[in-house]
Amino acid sequence: MLAEIKGLNEECGVFAIWGHEKAAEMTYYGLHAMQHRGQEGAGIVTSDKEMLYLHKGNGLINEVFQEGEFNRLRGSAALGHVRYATQGGGGYENVQPLLFRSQRNSMALAHNGNLVNAYALKNQLEAQGSILQTTSDTEVIAHLIKRSGHLAMEEAIKQALGMIKGAYAFSILTEDKLYVALDPRGLRPLSIGKLGDAYVVASETCAFDLIGATYEREVKPGELITIDDTGLTTTSFSSQMQRTLCSMEYVYFSRPDSNLDGLNVHASRKTMGKQLAYESPVEADVVTGVPDSSISAAIGFSEASGIPYELGLIKNRYVGRTFIQPSQELREQGVKMKLSPVRGIVNGKRVIMVDDSIVRGTTSRRIVRLLKEAGAKEVHVRIASPPIENPCYYGIDTSTKGELIAANHAVDDMCEIIGADSLAFLTTEGLEKSIVNESNSHEHGICKACFTGNYPTEIYPNTVLPAYKE
Ligand code: SF4
C-alpha cells in the first residue's frame, strides 16, 4: 500500500559503518536502500578519528546529497539516518543524525522509535536547566548521556538507557567509537553485518545487500554494542526479556527482500496470505494485491485458494512526493494518480482484493470503487493483518483511535463503508503463526499491540503519539 495516502508511516531508518575507506558513500547507499522508511529528511555524520563532519537536509537522500558532499565527509566511520517527519516535527533541526559538539568529545546520534516517557524526561531536563533545541526524542537521549559526562562514555550511555522507556534502536558515533543499542523488548529492527573488515549496522538487511555486506546477527534486546578499531564488544544494559519485534514491520513496513530475525519479509507475507485464505475463503475469479506491500500476501492467498493471481492494480511509479496532499479532494485525486485498475483483468470478474492493512478506510473505499468502475462484478476485500484498533506508541504513525476505522466500527459496518461485497481480516493467531514458529519462538516474539491493545511496555499518561509528538 502507499504509505502517504494510507495514514500509516514508519518513523526512520538507521545505518552505520566502522572501518571502511568509503564510509560516507557506503552510508549513502545503505540509506538509499531504506528510503521507504522515511522521505522527509536524511543526514550523514562521519568521523576521521579527530573530528565529526555532518551533512543533512530535508528531502530524499538523492536530493540532500550531491557528489561534492562526499569530499567533505571525511573518515572511515559514518552514521546515517532517513527520517519520516511526524506532524509538526519537521524542519531542518530535527533531521538526524543530531550532532553535539563539546570540548571533551563530540557525538552524533541517530534513532528509530519513540520514547514513551519522553515528555516526563523533557520536563525534568528543562527543570534542571537544559535547553532543548529540537523537538525530537533523540536530543533527550543526548542530554541524558551528557549529564553523566563524568563517567566513561559506555557507562554514561548505559545510565541514560536505564532512564528511557519505549522503543528505540539507535547508534551513536564519537570521534573514536561507534555505539549501537536496542531497547529491552527489541521493538524496532536492527542488524549487524560485515563488509570486508568493516562493521555495518542497519535497520533493515536490504541495506547490507545493496552494498555487498554479509549479515552477521540481530542486535539483541537490551544490548549495547561498542565498535572501534580493536573490534566489537557487547554488554547488556537490562535484564533479558522476550523480544516483541513490531509485527507491522512484517505486515507492511520492511522491504520484502529484508530479513527480520532471520525470517524473510516476503515469505512471511506470503504465509499471511495463505493463512488468510484458509481462514476466510470466498469464491472468486481472480486474486489481486494492492501494490507494493500486499503483492506477497496476494500471491500466498492465490496459492492457497487455487484462484489465479492477476495484476488487477498497477502502481504509477513516476508520481513524485509533491502529490502528498492533505485535503480530502486532493487525496481522492492522489489514488487515481498512483493506482490504476487493469480493466482487461477485472472487467466482469469477481475480484479478491488483498491488502496488508486498513487504517482509516478511506483508501480501501477508493480502491474498491476504482475496481468497480473498471467493471469488477464483485470485490471481496481480504486484509492480511488483524483490524488496527489501537494507536502505536512506539514510533509508528497509525493515527489516533478516533481516526482508526476498526476502533469505531464492526467488520460488517466497515465492509459497507468501503463498499465491498465482503470483508475479512487475518486473525491475531493467524498473524502470529505466520511469523513465530517453534524453531524461532525463543528469540522471536512480536508486538501486536495495535491489534490487541496489550502494550509490551508501560504507557505513560503523557505519552504523545508520534503523529502528534510536538
Ligand atoms: S503497536 Fe503495532 S505498529 Fe506499534 S510497535 Fe506494536 S505492532 Fe508495531
Task: Offer a few descriptive terms.
470 residues, alpha+beta, seven-stranded antiparallel β-sheet, six-stranded antiparallel β-sheet, 18 helices, 23 strands, 30% helix, disordered N terminus, disordered C terminus, binds iron/sulfur cluster
First-to-last CA distance? 27 Å
Q: How can the largest sheet be summarized?
A: 7 strands, antiparallel
Strand content: 15-25%
Tally the beta strands: 23
Low-confidence stretches: 1-5, 321-326, 465-470
Which radius of gyration do the C-alpha atoms yield?
Answer: 22 Å
Strand order of the largest sheet: 3-2-4-1-10-9-11
Q: What global shape is seen?
A: elongated
What is the helix content?
25-40%
Rounded mean pLDDT is 88
Describe this entry's structure for a reader.
It is built from 18 helices and 23 strands. Strands 3-2-4-1-10-9-11 form a 7-stranded antiparallel sheet. Strands 5-6-7-8-12-13 form a 6-stranded antiparallel sheet. The chain has a 4-stranded parallel sheet with strand order 17-20-21-22, with helices on both faces. It is elongated. Residues 187, 246-248, 392, 394, 396, 398, 447-450 line the site of iron/sulfur cluster.
